[in-house]
Amino acid sequence: MMHAHHATAPERLWQHKALKLRYEESDGRDIKPTIKASSNNIARRVVLPTPSPMPGDCDVKHYILDHAKPYDGDSTFLASPTPRTQRALSKFKQLLAEEREAGGVLSVDTTTPSTITSHAPGYLLSKDEDIIVGMQSDSPLKRTCKPHGGYGVVKNALEAYGYEPGEKLKAFKEDVVTHNDMTFSMYTSKMKMARHAHLLTGLPDGYGRGRIIADYRRIALYGVDELIKRKSADFAAIPGSALESMRLRSEISMQIKALKQLLIMADSYGVNLRRPATTFRETAQALWLGHTAALKEQDGAAMSAGRWDTFLDIYSERDLANGITTEEEIQEVIDDLVLKMRMVRHVRTPEYNALFSGDPTWITLALGGATEDSKSMVTKTTYRFLHSLRNLGPAPEPNLTVLWTKHHPQNFKEYCANLSIETSSIQYENDDLMRPIFGSDYAIACCVSAMRVGKDMQFFGARTNLVKLLLMVLNGGRDEIEGKLLCEPLAAACKEAGIGAGDEDEPLDYDNVARLFFDVAIPWMAELYADTMNVIHYSHDTASYENLQMSLHDSQVNHLMAFGIAGLSVVADSLAAMKYDEVYSIRDERGLTAGFTRGHPGKSTPQFGNDNPKVDDIAVRVCEKFHSALDKQQLYKNAKATLSVLTITSNVVYGKSTGATPDGRLKGEPFAPGANPMHNRDRNGAIASLSSVAKLPYSSCMDGISNTFCLTPTALGSLSVDRAPNLVTLLDGYFAQGGHHININVLNRELLKDAHLHPEKYPDLTIRVSGYAVRFNQLTPEQREEVLKRTMHGTAIASNSKLSRGTSNGRSFYHRESFNIDQTSEHLDALDLDSLVVSSDDDDNAHPRNTPVIGSVHSLETFSSNDGPGIRTLVFLQGCSKRCKFCSNPETQCVIDPFQFPEVAVSDEQVGHILNRYKHYLQPNNGGITLSGGEALLQPDFVRSVFKRAKELSLTTCLDTSGPGSKSIWNKVLPVTDYVMLCIKGMDLRLASFISGVSETSNIRAREFALHIRDNYKDIRLSLRWVLLKGMTDTDDEIQALAAFAKDLKPVFTHVELLPYHTLGKEKYEMLGQQYPLGDMKPYEYDDALIVQQKLGDLGVPSILAEQ
């Protein structure tokens, strides 16, 4: 049991708490709703209200806590798909193919308005063969119409796919006031203008609002007869004729009616839901029929399932113990349940599909998490739901959401990570962040919206186009596209501040723009947004109330109203550009901004996604100010405002309707999805990108902060065995920093490019977009192109970004004319290498501990998993003694004095600060720091000092080098070094000299360096890096000589790392105006590299080759 001290009575009532949403510090004082996320510590937490108890309240939570058995074993117990499951899957895939051939919609019932009891039973295989029964209509993938949301909406959707509404549907045009009708009848002119201008976007006024999580578990635990009795008791407990009392009694009456209809529908399938379920299969069936009833009644934007895994596991464990089922039968039930989830379909308009592409239904299923007393809630059934991705193949639905916690067993974490690497079908959310607020029995609606199951409900409200709001500040309150005046207060404020037509010759004043944005625009927007939402949800409750879903809540429910913002990173980058550079407006004949120019085009301004507080703090301020303004509004049913940073796929649509921005984004260009940095602006590596997003305050964004993250497989490690542990470390570190949500995609860009050009070849390719998963071929061409432009964190190489801005006093410090020494290969042959070394004398105290040691650094990559064990921060030092033909970082070759060129100057203290900030990512699995180059041994004092700081943080140190220098230099660095990766250019000295561009003597030094380690530093682990060049370094003579040398290095030698030649650095030579040394040499074939690996193995030398 998870909580042996809890009572088991289902009717336990929740304790009444204050109804005011408040923010508390440890002393309990009310404070301003702000938060700063820091590692392992969220300084302030939110306390949700708990409504007054009612006699019919249900308590599933404590039943789970008292009976569930957490599981900390591995996945070996899982069962493969049964033959029946394989037949069902084959039939489903056949239907999917027919649906694609039909243009995306297989069939629609255009005659019968959908209700809980409107359609006869439907089956995938047959009544006898389906393990779990329940469909929206009488045949699989047939869509049904729900006109209570709006007849015009249904009509437009049908006509888009070549259908016409039947007579029963047409009756809703004149005879029924629908949600859509009522909403637009109450919209003010300001609301309509904001909607038309795409300032308020994606509003649920033309589709079901969704985002309501019914507690379907109550059906199985109590039985429907008991639920009806409890609702009747609630009805009787509400006296009088006060408006609120009458409303609540009316709603309960509709809920009771829906429960009775649920029984009728279940009877049609031959399922008895009147009594509690007794077996695992009965329980799963009850959950699904409850959800099916909701799907038949509503087509909400997100019809989340809730949190079923731990509840279901109670019954599976009981059945297994009693010998009435087997593991194969349990998995078969789960697989069939998942198949039914994948078959859900709705009728949607083209406008809806443009916003929410890929035909999503958001049947979000929350998995895992922990109890309030920090015990894992992972069970065998948690594994079983995830295992469906292997038994049935990857798919968008259900939207599998792991509630990640530091209390999860490592086995489970690595199982999840492996599935993400295989399928890109899982999203992760921070249970340690949400659990203190929502308790242990919450679930996720849509993508990132947490709610206590059966206790909270949400009024969903899409989002506002924050970028357009900022442009209104620069255009006197007018829409930058059509020029219509949307905000009169801004018009007056901009005129007073001198912002508008005629200001083109003066840079935009950051202080003025920020003041108007935060103090005028945001409060105005929050008020209009809140008024609009109140209209929408009053109308939805009146015309299209979710009877069945709300019957599975307590009668007194806590209401949350979910607002959203789109374009956060564009706004933050735009404001930062104004603050840290001079930005000038370009205006058209109407005086509206048509573009922007920069006073210093080559100047780099802070950009969100690089862990830079200069811009990250702006993003935090935007979130806090917007939520604070919303929190002041009077909301329908006294709901409490929450805010999301989430766009779904609508970032493309929003961008199309928005003009150019001060950050350099062009008119019509997509925004970044959710809380992501703009595409390819997060240049400091994966960890820096994650760290920026993790700063966004969850207390101000409790509707969720969506982060969609893309990695190549090799970015997680050269070998597949390392990838899952490294992904686990990445997730642990991100959530320890306070990150809320992350979608994980592990994909190759080349595969996506091919899938974009030939979508028919990849019918099952699933990717995560912004808060949900989608089949890639179901995205529009524009959306696929946008996905291809996103940052995809790959294997770390020295950044290209400095090449365009590497100047000082008008000189490029990456070109040879910047230096006082001749750096041609001929001169390097004769040059004393020690003259290049940036070093003090041999005295270990030459640099007192409080005196910074300055290094010449080209760039720093916060995330690398291919340059030593674990996750590492990789520092590329500036300056190299060789001119290798295959060098992929030619810009790091020139030796630069950091005191003459401060652009490359970095202190050991600065590196130490970075390591300390990212230590949560770096400490596991022997991670740490790797110094590369260039050539790290040209700066031994800096290397030694940085490595000492790393050691103090319990991080490992790794030296990536070609072994130049002398014993005095080596002995400075090696005592604080754990790993050495030594690049040997060739075993034949003439070949090595040709490849490296320096003398044979210099190449002998590398071998002496290896022998010095063997003889004097037995604890260092030494690997040899060997670049495979066709016909040069892959000959039998070279491989045999390499093997002999490697064997001679025992016991410090570990392995040879084979590096097939690539052309990743070729474009850098072009940017530098240099000729590429290897001309048109083609990349080394992977199959040929496997042959070399086999040869080394035959010679008794271990080697590794990065897996494709």
From TrEMBL:
Domain Radical SAM core span(s) in chain numbering: 866-1099
This protein's record includes keyword Signal: no
EC code(s) of this entry: 2.3.1.54
Cellular compartments per GO CC: cytoplasm
Catalytic activity: formate + acetyl-CoA = pyruvate + CoA
Main EC class the enzyme belongs to: transferase
Cofactor(s) named in the record: [4Fe-4S] cluster
InterPro entries given in the database record: Aldolase_TIM (IPR013785), Auton_GlycylRad_Cofactor (IPR050244), Form_AcTrfase_GR_CS (IPR019777), Gly_radical (IPR001150), PFL_dom (IPR004184), Radical_activat_CS (IPR001989), rSAM (IPR007197), rSAM_sf (IPR058240)
Subcellular location(s) per record: Cytoplasm
GO-annotated molecular function: 4 iron, 4 sulfur cluster binding; formate C-acetyltransferase activity; metal ion binding; oxidoreductase activity
Keyword Endoplasmic reticulum appears in the UniProt entry: no
One Pfam family here: Gly_radical
PROSITE patterns (alphabetical): GLY_RADICAL_1, GLY_RADICAL_2, PFL, RADICAL_ACTIVATING, RADICAL_SAM
Family: Belongs to the glycyl radical enzyme (GRE) family. PFL subfamily. Belongs to the organic radical-activating enzymes family.
Protein name stated in the entry: formate C-acetyltransferase
Source organism of the structure: Discostella pseudostelligera
